[in-house]
Design a protein that fits this description.
Layout (H helix, E strand, L loop, with lengths): L14 H4 L4 E5 L14 E3 L9 E4 L16 E4 L4 E7 L3 E7 L4 E7 L1 H5 L2 H13 L7 E4 L12 H10 L7 E2 L7 E2 L1 H12 L6 E3 L24 E7 L1
Parallel strand pairs: 2-5, 3-4, 8-11
Antiparallel strand pairs: 1-12, 4-7, 5-12, 6-7, 6-8, 9-10
Helix pairs in contact: 3-5
Length: 235
């Protein structure tokens, strides 16, 4: 999809998720202000710290602003009207939806969170707290730095090698001096191991580093220090 031109002033969507009328979702660009395109839905974000902890919201919430200081990298809720917001500038935003139990989740997956198995853990927590069955879940993997551009150090390779049987499939050791990591593929493997069906995992295959016209990228422009917002909410 790298050569497709997208409108820079519109939320990007995954069609298979947009078809579900119970939810609203979107992946932001550098032209999108961090405002949800529905005034009945309130945005909630957390302090992302590249770990794998999950914030569980299972009751109505009056003050969402307080959570901006809480240190989490994923959120799940069964409460309508709350947009779970993820901020990224090379890491992956991953959105989850269970149409059976009416639960949504959002997670921030950089290499550290991915190395801790964040996607697999969030799926497990959706099952533990809300009874979600992995085979019913839908997952949308949004824009992030692609395997074309994501050079990493040997410490990253060592982390993945020590934890995942499929580690060699997500690294490329050709064409550059340093190994390149495919974050999207790594998170796809985790979702499959968690029990999702392959046909229910959707990928918006856009590289934040390549597409300067669309996205902020910390690795490309460190001085910008800006991020795009992605979100999912139950209506």
């Amino acid at each position: 999809m790298a050569n497709i031109e997208f409108p820079t002033e519109a939320w990007l969507e995954i069609p298979e998720l947009a078809d579900h009328k119970l939810i609203l979702h979107g992946f932001g660009t550098r032209r999108i202000p961090p405002r949800i395109p529905n005034n009945k839905i309130r945005l909630m974000t957390v302090k992302q710290v590249h770990k794998s902890r999950t914030l569980i919201l299972d009751a109505p919430q009056e003050n969402l602003g307080k959570y901006s200081r809480f240190r989490f990298d994923s959120m799940i809720t069964n409460q309508p009207g709350i947009a779970l917001g993820i901020r990224t500038a090379d890491c992956l935003p991953v959105l989850l939806f269970d149409p059976e139990t009416k639960v949504v989740g959002a997670l921030h997956a950089g290499w550290r969170g991915t190395g801790e198995g964040i996607a697999q853990k969030v799926v497990g927590r959706m099952g533990k707290f809300f009874g979600s069955r992995p085979v019913k879940l839908r997952a949308g993997i949004g824009p992030g730095i692609g395997h074309c551009c994501y050079e990493v150090g040997e410490d990253v390779v060592t982390t993945f090698r020590s934890k995942f049987s499929w580690w060699a499939d997500v690294f490329s050791f050709r064409g550059s001096k340093r190994p390149k990591l495919d974050l999207a593929r790594a998170n796809t493997y985790q979702l499959l191991e968690a029990g999702l069906k392959e046909e229910n995992i959707y990928l918006l295959d856009l590289c934040t580093y390549c597409r300067e016209n669309l996205f902020f990228s910390f690795r490309r422009n460190k001085e910008e220090k800006q991020e795009q917002l992605s979100f999912i909410a139950l209506k």
